[in-house]
Specification:
By secondary structure, the chain is α/β, with parallel strands linked by helices. The chain has one domain: Ribonuclease Z/Hydroxyacylglutathione hydrolase-like (Metallo-beta-lactamase, Chain A, 4-Layer Sandwich). About 20% of the residues lie in helices and about 20% in strands. The strands form two sheets. Strands 6-5-4-3-2-1-14 form a seven-stranded mixed beta sheet, covered by helices on one side. A seven-stranded mixed beta sheet has the order 7-8-9-10-11-12-13, with helices on one face. It is globular. It starts with about 25 loop residues before the first strand and ends with a strand. The structure holds zinc ion. Zinc ion binds next to loops.
Length: about 290
Amino acid sequence: MGRWSAAIDPAWLHHEERPTAARLALQWLGTAGFRVVFGEGGAEHHVWLDPHLSRHSLAEVALTRLRPNLQRIAADVDRADAVAVGHAHFDHAIDAPEIARRFDARLYGSASMMEIARGYGTPEALLRPLVPGVTVHDGPCSLTAYRSQHSRFAFGRVPAPGDVKAPLRWPAHAKNFRVGEVLALHLAGGPLTVAHLGSADLIEAELEGVQADVVLACTVGRQATPNFTHRMIDALQPQLIVPCHWDRFWRPIDAPPLQIPTTDLEGFLAEVRRHPRAPDIKVLPLRGWLTLA
Ligand SMILES: [Zn+2]
């Protein structure tokens, strides 16, 4: 397999049942979407990151105005206490307002994310704009956003640049989900710290002194960011990396996963292994769980 291969080698995948008594666990749901579950004393706290269950087809994305697919959200989201979004492109932001509204969950994100949710009708009381460098506490989870940047994978540019400056009118074309401020999300408060990079770029100066035991790392578009993989490992010094955003997120979640062309997941695995720190790496199947502690 190589850079242009779309296949997934089943031997790469980590399989695990949904844990029942983990102190910290996560589930990958395709694209950059994760749920992180903090469990202490029998209580669970579910924090969703960039949840994307709707998975519209390419034709729908290109030709129609989008709204969240409520059936698909209901099929996978059984609980949410908080939702945090790293940037406001549709494949990161489209389902967050509905999940927040449905579960009365707090919604954290950029000013653009707030306008997207406002337009959707998510109650104002749930909207929590993130200020880079300022830690907020949500149950046991301490969430800090750090200024980051989006990979310039589209012929050297970031698609849908700029901000959403007014409440988004739904349904909305994909291009109206402007990228907004790009944030690296850092979660502490559990036995391990977790960082989420929803796009394959970073700003080292913003992450000075920040460490993450686990990094949820976007792999698509990293070829546009010089030496992304090793810079990410140098900056955050993780013990474990979980790659994400490698799957064709316009295919149904139940279909066998295929890589987005150019993702080269195999190349990413090799890049990680070549780093002197050689952090562990776990590739999860769609809906796959991983107990961290
Ligand atoms: Zn994006």
